[in-house]
Amino acid sequence: MPPYTDTTQSTKYRKEQQKLLRPRVINGKQTFVKFLPQDDLKAIHPVYLTDPTDFKPRRQLRGDMLEWGIVELDLSIQLSLVETIERRMVQDSARAKCMYHRELQPQVQFINALMERKAKIAAARDPQREMCDFELTVRLRNTESASTTTCLMWRRIKVAGATKLGVFQDKILAPALGWTRNYHGYLFVDDSDGAQYGAPGASHIDLMFLKDNGHTYLDDDEFSLADILPGPNPDKPAFHFIYDLGDFWFHDIYVEMILPASESNGKVALLAGGGACPREDGQGCRNWIKYIQSLDLKKHAEIAQSMNYSDDPDVRRLGARWRFDPHAFDLTAARKRISDALASPASVPSGPKKAVVGDPFAFARRGVPSDRVPKGTHRTIIPTGDFNPFPKDSMLRGAFNQTEVVRDRRDKRALALCACCGKPITEPRMCGACKKVYYCDRE
Q1: Were both Cys, which of 21, 142, 319, 400 would link to 34 (CB 3.0–4.6 Å)?
Q2: pTM of the predicted model, to two decimals?
Q3: 205 assigned to some structural domain
Q4: Nearest residue to 17 (alpha-carbon basis) of 94, 101, 91, 92
């Protein structure tokens, strides 16, 4: 769950709330979740009034298991966006006279119990699975209607079962697909029960939508692919990858094959793929289909200037003559993106790429606490190529910068991947030159 920065006032408020929280008695049974005394429990989803140990997740209307398996009361009711937001606001506040502190929300209390149960299930997995390689197919879901789905982008990847989910997303999955590292938030979702995994301490701007996507998540640095992926089933997705919680790019992950340990080498390999990655900030799958169906010169230029295309060699070479082909896929370029990511330190989710106008170091020089960065990291200005959100005639265009917190130290040993082959290594050898990456052997 994203951290809440405590101030003296907020800490005092949380402690006062903690004293007021009490379980309620509903139909002779005491609730697991504690509420404030002034709450109107009619505003709360009935599932939060039950015992989480008895909770059975349910699938959404389209058949997906999302948001911890908690669905709307009546799946036949189609609410407008405004009505959905209003209902969420009522449920989030529980009609309390004052808002809950983040970790004390009834929803979060309930889901924390589900997380404990999920962690125990993952811990019971066969540890020998981590010695196996997994062949995965990742497909971008593009939904035009309730009954029609088309896959516009897909990738097939071989990866070691011991790879932690966070490292897999940062150094393998995002580069393979074509998304920008450490730019937007993300979630992994287990299709068996809706359990969610995400980056610990993340502060991506789109995490403001987390309350609409399950409220909280497990630490993906604590779980490997072998911990959570089931057996092979090329016809049913085992996992979902949601990138950018605002635009909601939805990917299905299928387990095609699990190689036995005797045939596994642990090395990362992008085996095949098809289709171009959408542009960053492209407003999601449904809008993306409509967008590419009516490509014109203006839209080609917008894609060329997006975060994940502005540095593309073809874009730089052709300039205004560059044209976006939604069906094109450069396997060599995608493999290079993975190779470059493996040979660099892991991203810092608490300091993602973000746009600023003016001097990005002004707050740091003043010693403003909100701009402090974790120990062993520093804030830097990153090249943006032609990416700039302001029109060419805007006064703000020249003052635009983009910053990111980058790591000075090497990655944690428990999360180490070989900078050459991507193999998880229990006894990593540190690079003697940069002292930031690891290798599995001297060669």
Answers
A1: 21
A2: 0.86
A3: yes
A4: 101
